[in-house]
Known about the structure:
Blueprint: H1 3-32, H2 47-78, H3 83-92, H4 98-131, H5 139-170, H6 175-198, E1 205-207, H7 211-224, E2 230-234, E3 245-248, E4 255-259, H8 260-265, H9 268-283, H10 286-308, H11 312-316, H12 325-340, H13 344-365, H14 368-381, H15 390-396, H16 402-414
Parallel strand pairs: 2-4
Antiparallel strand pairs: 1-2, 3-4
Helix pairs in contact: 1-2, 1-15, 2-4, 3-4, 4-5, 4-12, 5-6, 6-10, 7-9, 9-13, 9-14, 13-16, 14-16
Amino acid sequence: MHWLTAAFLFFLLAGASFRVWLALRQIRNVQAHRGRVPVPFDQEISLEEHSKAAAYTAARTRLGIFAGIWDTALMLLWTLGGGLALVDIFWRQWDLPMLWTGVAFILATFIFMSIVSLPFSIYQTFVVEARFGFNRTTPRLFVTDMVKALALSLLIGGPLLALILWLMARAGDYWWVYAWVAWVTFSLAMTWAFPRFISPLFNKFAPLEDKDLKTRIETLLKRCGFKSEGIFVMDGSRRSSHGNAYFTGMGNNKRIVFFDTLMESLEPGEVEAVLAHELGHFRKHHIRKRLLLSFAMSLVGLAILGWLKSQAWFYSALGMDVASDHAALMLFLLVVPVFTFPVTPLGAYLSRRHEFEADEYASEQSDASSLISALVKLYKDNATTLTPDPLHSGFYDSHPPAPVRVARLAELAKG
Length: 415
């Protein structure tokens, strides 16, 4: 057995086993604490609501266990089981130019992967979310969203994929540098275009109509030195009763977006505090830092791929009989997450640190007590568990656990 095959099997199976172990810890922990609402939430969240959050978390986590096992089995079938090799043989028999053979091979593989994982998405939406009263997506809307996403993937991802494969074949030993420039350019363009051209294909965005709230928000924006294209309310209730808020875009195409479900549950002061938190991410340059980190990681990844694609053992060790640019790219995209899974806690830690920084900024520009009350409402409305397993939370969670976050905000409110 080649060392890469052994390493791949070890990381794949060890990672899958570790994910199951963490998931079982999470389920046990939330179930063990479902009988008592922790302080300081016991005045705002009932025991029934707390128990619902525990059951919801457990149901989602159980589904995640089965989905993870399924994904692990599929990974083995695609690689060592010869699945990718069979797809490659299928497209080669049509005698297309190598560039288009590669594009068809990769797009077809991703489409098929999406199809075989579709049952879990359907179950999550129409069983788990529906059971706990969150789902508002109709089967027609679900299919429409899926078709739109597929069309966008082909229209936008297809040309990018063709360009990268062309560079791999024609740009010489340092093709990966040119591919990285293309990827960075594409990412920045998509970040700019997403709020104006892509999001409206899936949701409706209406300007904020509440004049008093709008004035209050505009005052906050001016105080924070933030300029945006506008303040919009999104029809998130078409798909789910979950609430959220975010800002998106870059340059002169930035937008502040509130879910309509969020606007229904929060008071004006709480909406302002939530927005101040989101603006904290902007003022602390979190989005810029994340983009730069992702660009740096993609450059390293492409450099590694630039070396691997010329190594015959890279293909044979992972189940591919014939070496090609498209095989190298597809294998790399598949196996990189297997080897980078152990660094997941680092990304989660950085994200939680950014959340704390944004909370601190919000307490300076708005009111920490209002942010606390807004978060408690969001925890209740979204059935967020108040008692996650510490190890599971530390490994995965992009946001601090509710008790930790609220306690820190309470200290800021006192100061």
